[in-house]
Design goal:
Blueprint (H helix, E strand, L loop, with lengths): L4 E7 L5 E9 L2 E11 L2 H18 L24 E7 L1 H13 L7 H12 L4 H12 L5 H7 L7 H14 L7 E10 L23 E8 L5 E8 L8 H12 L5 E4 L6 H9 L4 E4 L7 H10 L7 E5 L8 E6 L1 H23 L10 E3 L7 E3 L1 H9 L3 E6 L8 H9 L2 H11 L12 H25 L3 H9 L3 E6 L5 E5 L9 H6 L6
Parallel strand pairs: 5-8, 8-9
Antiparallel strand pairs: 1-2, 2-3, 4-15, 5-6, 6-7, 9-14, 10-11, 11-14, 12-13, 15-16
Amino acid sequence: MRGDLTIRKVKTASGATAVQVVRNEGKKRAIIKHVGSAHSKSECDLLMAEAVKYAEAHRRQPYLFPETPTSTNSPQHLDLSHAELVDVTHQFARTALLACARMCGLGAMPELYLDFAIMRIIEPVSKLRTLELLQRYFNVRYAERTVYRLLPKLLEYQKEIETAAIQTARDVLQETFSLVLYDVTTLYFESFKEYDFQKPGFSKDNKPQQPQIVIGLITTRLGFPVMHEVFEGNTFEGKTMLDIVHRLQERVGNSKPVIVADAGMLSKANMQQLEADGYSYIVGARLASTASSFIDTIHKELPRTDQASRRFSYSNAVKNASIICEFSEARYKKDKREFDKQIKRALQLLERNESGRRAKFVKKSGEKDKPFIFDNALQAKAEKLLGIKGYVTNIPELELSSADVVAYYRDLWHVEQAFRMSKSDLKARPIFHYTQEAIRAHMLVCFMALMMGKYLEIKTGRSLRQIRDELWQVQEANIHDERTGEVHAVRMNTSKLANSTLIQLLNPEFPH
């Protein structure tokens, strides 16, 4: 290009082609604008066209003589009477999400794995369908045999991926790892046949007859995922926490975070081991399982005013542990409705002399003529706990107030929301794989997609669905010139997105 601005293409470390507008200043070359990085010829053509327009608009002196095109094959001089629309693609969305992957520290990963993670965000489907859509949406082609051969090898990158997640949380999201959230979910299989790894167990998906796996996930307080593990389907969730916590500790350094988990993690062995290993913890309490005398103490000492709380010693069960009990008016109303429904159901079953297995306040009497009776003791015990939630911690009140303990525990909704995103937006379930390697690789792809999705949500304050819809607005028309046989890509005008928070963040073509 003539004049003071020129355009150059440079190969990047990841193998992409960077398109830049530069100015030669003596022996130095200054980069005026980095237009973007292309991962295919069609992407490169689009970026080159953008670079030409930018250079034309920003040169210091206009041409005295307009430049005459050397070929009539350029899109600007395409004769539409000899052209046909071949297809419409979404290279813009892929370029933007690849930029997001780089921001999450995943830029050095093979593009096959990144493309599969991107498709979990764009349109999560089976592996075969993913290959079809990658070709349709992005003109990206992978051989089916190559994909099924390489996907299990993704497991070799798990440590690298989780290290990238930790670094992103620390360096970009300013996470100090003083506190992490841990929770467990289950994912079922479209089969009733057990295999070595997927087995029936306690199902959070209400699929008790179908084999499943158990997933443990650690996130930051904002819900950004930093580590996960996959367990056999019949693994008790309380036995999943210690190994993954220790693995996280190896990665984050000497400081030991406070572990926040729900009541499923509450076991005497877990708390004793965390204590022995020097961890502080906050876990949900199962108050209904505590002794009647302890419930009587709570009932007498905890005021029934909204947000009232009391701290009680729990050291007879676990050394240095306390239970913080808080009363909530809203929780009371909800608990009372459920309590009344359960009593009504129990009385109806007893009136019909039916089995009490399906009712909470029914117990066996040991008499033949009246085998089931109403459990008055359980009713009294449950009534004393209406509206009360308990939290177990080994952190002294001088170090962390009861109000802060409750506030930290409430952050668990972030990890629960991450699981919901995995199950709904990213469709981690149902799973059709059978071998342990393939299952773990599938979950690692979902973990990468979760990293990218949560990063975008945290940085933009928008839902993943809104993010996907905005990226999907921009399309490219691929036009075939019948005279030359060339295909030209023409992207719709993106100037209306220049002020978008999402586009400014990902910056596939707009400067910050």
